[in-house]
Amino acid sequence: MLSFEEYRRYDALGLAELVRKGAHVPQELLECAIRRIDEVNIVLNAVIHTFYDEARVQSKSVDTSAPFCGVPFLVKDLGMAVKGTPLRMGCRGYANNISKQDSHAVQKMRQAGFLIFGKTNTPEFGLAPYTEPKTFGGTRNPRNPKYSPAGSSGGSAAAVASGIVPMATANDGGGSIRMPASACGLFGLKPTRGRVSWSGLYGEMWSGASVEGCVSRSVRDTAAYLDVISGSGPGDPYISAQPQRPYLQEVNIAPGKLRIGWSLTHTIGQRVDAACKTAVEHALEVLRQEGHTVEEVALPYQREDLTEAFIVIVAAETAADVAALSQHLGYKAGPGDVEANTYALALLGRSFTAADYALAKRRWHELSQRMVDFHEKYDVLVTPTLARCPIRLGALQNSKVENALLIVVNALGLGSIVRASLNQLIEKIYGYMPWTPFANMTGQPSMSIPFYQTEEEKLPIGVMFTGRMGQEDLLLRLAGQLERVAPWDKITEN
């Protein structure tokens, strides 16, 4: 029987190689993952739905030529449909929503040899930078259960960090791959817009802000995963140019001498935790040692890009999510069908006009042009991934006063009141995540790499690297280099 200690030593490609060589069979890997869920999930609450029997059947007919043959795998319960299983998106209103088909990307996951055996936790509609949905309860950070794994891919990140699986799906509409990667000590790459198809369920998510990817323990796993699932599907509104060679090959290619701009400036003017600054300083030291040119820069984006462009689209998309839920339910969804914060954000979305939405999208495109100008001089932009160290569970939840106000606002449909208190919402949420949403607006690839851990709690801290549109290859070369010269074993071990 495969022990957890041996299972844990390998990344996903390493486990697949064990199967390929006949050292272990897929059933052994799957049963080890199931035992690990039984051991840790009662505390972590990372996995909210399992389908072991289906995976056991699939494990008997694995194609050993597939790149991830026999590797146990988990899918985030948002964005990706797995035929015959619930797709609830953290929402009570979707309690009986069963997927009728696999998403296009999920079909590719199966073809790659993954054994999908469960769904991971997510905040309602992926809206929060923490994973604490009312319907399923909060997910805890494996490094310290008193802390959050961040969000919205917190369930997947906690599952990977705890050793249930070596990698899991994640998606990112405002930082939801990179933030959990940072909080859990994982590698997280948000691909370029259109790199991975939403076909089979959506055309796009969050007006093009959201993209599908994964969280993993190794750079090569993410690279090989992109090779597997990237590419357009039927009806896609975006098509990204295909890479010159497989992404897996990029990991071992030197990135050359890069021009790197960095900043510690908080986008909305709040403080940045000392540990987050230290993580960047460590990263810059390594980059200099590797011969890269490193220079402090003024950020190519600003507060207004969040407060007058990003939030408008997020609120409008939330209003659309609640409208889609109404279609599913067969009646107009009310405050009892979604969480209070979700409903209030939907009210905010309804308060904006079509002109507000169109103007916000224009500002997204203006930001994209600014980033083009920035990348004329710099190959990569470096910032902290988050402005705060991993937060305690519940730290960003509403106060009693805020909850009482929301009850009145939602009952009366007072979107104008939500709009009037918008600055308070922005200060609270974007104070924690002031940098991640910009790559979602522009569609650029962006990654978080573990570089530090807090002194007292030994909690991981990530550093974010954002590259030119379509240049995942360059980021993967850089990530491979950093993984070799500054391995994050001590940060990722649990």
Structural description of this entry:
This protein has 494 residues and is of the alpha/beta class. It folds into two domains: 4-256 and 451-492, Alpha-Beta Complex (Amidase signature (AS) enzymes), CATH 3.90.1300; 308-377 and 397-429, no CATH class. It is built from 19 helices and eleven strands. The protein has helices spanning 4-9, 12-21, 26-44, 52-59, 104-111, 154-161, 178-184, 219-229, 247-250, 274-289, 303-329, 340-351, 354-375, 400-412, 415-420, 422-429, 437-442, 472-485, 489-492; strands at residues 47-50, 72-76, 115-120, 167-172, 187-190, 211-216, 259-262, 293-296, 380-384, 446-453, 460-467. Strands 4-6-5-10-11-9-7-8 form an eight-stranded mixed beta sheet, with helices on both faces. A three-stranded mixed beta sheet has the order 1-3-2. The mean pLDDT is 95.
Which labels suit this protein?
11 strands, three-stranded mixed sheet, alpha/beta, 2 domains, 494 residues, globular, Amidase signature (AS) enzymes, eight-stranded mixed sheet
How many domains make up the coordinates?
2
Along the chain, the helix and strand elements come as HHHEHEHEHEHEEHHEHEHHHEHHHHEEHH
- DSSP E strands, number: 11
The CATH class of the largest domain is: Alpha Beta
Proportion of beta-strand residues:
5-15%
Number of helices: 19
Q: Under the CATH scheme, which architecture of the largest domain would be assigned? A: Alpha-Beta Complex
Separation, N- and C-terminal Cα atoms? 22 Å
**Average residue pLDDT:** 95
Q: Main beta sheet, described? A: 8 strands, mixed
Alpha-beta classification: alpha/beta
Shape: globular
Spatial order of the strands in the main sheet? 4-6-5-10-11-9-7-8
Taking pLDDT < 50 over at least 5 consecutive residues as the criterion, the unreliable ranges are none
Helix-residue proportion: 40-55%
The third-level CATH topology of the largest domain is Amidase signature (AS) enzymes
Q: Find the CATH superfamily of the largest domain.
A: Amidase signature (AS) domain
Radius of gyration: 21 Å
